[in-house]
Structures are given as C-alpha cells and as structure tokens.
Amino acid sequence: MPGGNTDKGLGAKKNEIYLSLQNSTQYIDWWHEPVPGEDFDHEGSLFSFILHPGVIYGLSNKINIYASTTFGIRTMDWFGTNHSVHHRDEDSNNDFRNANGGMLGDSKIIMRYLQKNTGAGDGYRIIIGGGIVIPSKNTITINPFLATDGEYPPHRHFSMTNGTYNYVSDLQVYYKRSSNPVFYGGSFSIEKPFEENEYLYLPPTKIDAVFSTIYKRFDSLDGSIDLSIGVQTLSQAYWDNESSPNSEALVVTPSFSYLFNLKKGALSIGIQKPFFIKGSFSGNEGDIGQRVKVWQLVLSYRSIPI
C-alpha cells in the first residue's frame, strides 16, 4: 500500500477479490487577514474524517476492475466571537443556503490493465488504468465568492464533492525484490472534469504523482517502513466562466507509514504533512494574507485475496 493507497501496487489474478478500507483524517489550522466588511482577523480549523471502502476484482489475469466510494464529514470550527458571513461553526452533513449537506462523496470505477504483474515474486508491476468519477449531490450550489451589491451573503466553502463527473487515468510502475528496499516505484494519475456541474462550477484538473520506497523491518510483526512523497497540482477552477480564487495550487506531501501483516490482510498507519508550494487553502477568501498548516493521519487496510 505505497503512500497509504490501498488500490496501488497490486494486481488481482482471475476471480481474486481484494477488499480495502482507507481512512484519512485531516486537520487544517488556518488564518487570514481582515476582509472588506469584516475588520478582524479570521481564524479557525477544518477537520475532515473520510472513509474510502473499495474492492479490486480480477476479471482475468490481465484485466482488473477497481470500485470505491467516499463518505465522511468535514467540520469547521470558527475561532473567536466575531460574527462572519464567510465562516462559522458548521459541518458538511447539514444543508446551508449555498450547499447540499450529506455524508456521501465521490464514487469511482476504474478498469486496469496489468501489463506486468509478478504477484508475490520479484519483478515489475506495471498497471495502466482508466475510469470515471461519479459525484454525489452533496456539493456547493452557489458561488461563495459572488457578492451582491458589494456585499457577501452568508455562505459555505466546503463540501463532500465538487459535483462533477470526471474521467481519471493512472499509471503504476513498481519493482518488488527480496532485499531492502523490498518495494519501490511510483504512480501517476490525472483527474479531469468532463464539464461544469449543474451549478456552473468547473473544478480544477488534478494531477497526482506519488513516489514510494518500502523497507522491510524483519521484526515480530513482519513490518515495513514506507517512505513516500506526493506531488499534486491543481489547475484554475471556474464559477460560471469566472476564475475561482485560491484554486490553483502545487502541494508536496511527505509521508511516513508503518505497515504490518494481520491474519487476513495488512494494515498501514501513516502520517502526512502537506506543504503548499504554490497557492493556498481554497476555503479562504481571494488574494489576501493567509497562513495554513495541515496534518493528515492515514489508516489503510487491505485484505488477503478472497
């Protein structure tokens, strides 16, 4: 499970089934300077608890299908006593004037071709995939950056989905061997919306690259150490053909994980620290002075073949 990703680095043989569950717990501590109409510092936190159940099925020794969904909750904690139309104590499960609330996020179906798959033996694992992302209805419904007569109505910036159908393609290249590092390589993926959603929002195109090296510990848990680094780029997003502030970004995420075997699978416990090299937190208002600190805890489980 390189980088804590339960669907990466593995190919199923014909009729094999792998079940997985990935949990990402993210804490964002944010601050930005005063904005027009609110002459005070804005500060708070955004806590996300997200679950990704998934399944890999071997249609043949060369063709796999991967399916997953997302559900969870995002919770905003507004620091201080000042009233703001931009932020407040709230969560993504409840409706707001510009948001449909709910726990369900995106679902994903990907077909993958196993160009090389050495299984338990030494050698390359090269996997090529393509598929579709299916949104839920739990999205932002009105542009949160849109002012009326120079004033902003109360609004929300976060949700469980962008509300668009996206195509996704990925490439995985890994090498497994008997001596340390026992597993290394990387994955590359691109996710792009087909078109804007019904509320005229076009989210960014997302490109992810994750490079991983795994070292066997040879301890009592038959554990391994996973050292990974992820690079993510986000393109410009648009509301009704107008640029959305803070949408472009370049994020680098180092990751440290400990993996160990269970009787019926494997478990990975990892900590990640994203750094914004370009751009900033998309939940903040426009081009203003701001600070963002992010930490992530990732728990990943993948079963033995069924």
Outline the structure in words:
By secondary structure, the chain is mostly beta strands. The chain has one domain: monomeric porin ompg (Porin, Beta Barrel), CATH 2.40.160. It contains no helices and 17 strands. The strands form 2 sheets. A 12-stranded antiparallel barrel has the order 1-2-3-5-6-7-8-10-11-14-15-17. It is elongated, with a radius of gyration of 21 Å. The two termini are 18 Å apart.
Write out key terms for the chains shown.
306 residues, mainly beta, Porin, twelve-stranded antiparallel beta barrel, three-stranded antiparallel β-sheet, 0% helix, 55% strand, elongated
Offer a quick outline of the entry.
Helices cover 0% and strands 55% of the residues. It has 306 residues and is mainly β. A hairpin with a 6-residue loop joins β7 (166-176) and β8 (183-193).
Number of strands: 17
* Radius of gyration, taken over Cα atoms and rounded to an integer in Å: 21 Å
Sheet with the most strands, sense and barrel status? 12 strands, antiparallel, barrel
Q: Per DSSP, what share of the residues sits in E-state strands of 2 or more residues? A: over 45%
- State the fourth-level CATH superfamily: monomeric porin ompg
Give the domain tally. 1
Give the overall average pLDDT: 94
Are there runs of 5+ residues with pLDDT below 50, and where? Answer: none
- Which structural class should the secondary elements be placed in? mainly beta
Please give the alpha-carbon distance between the first and last residues. 18 Å
* CATH topology group: Porin
Strand order of the largest sheet: 1-2-3-5-6-7-8-10-11-14-15-17
CATH class: Mainly Beta
CATH architecture: Beta Barrel
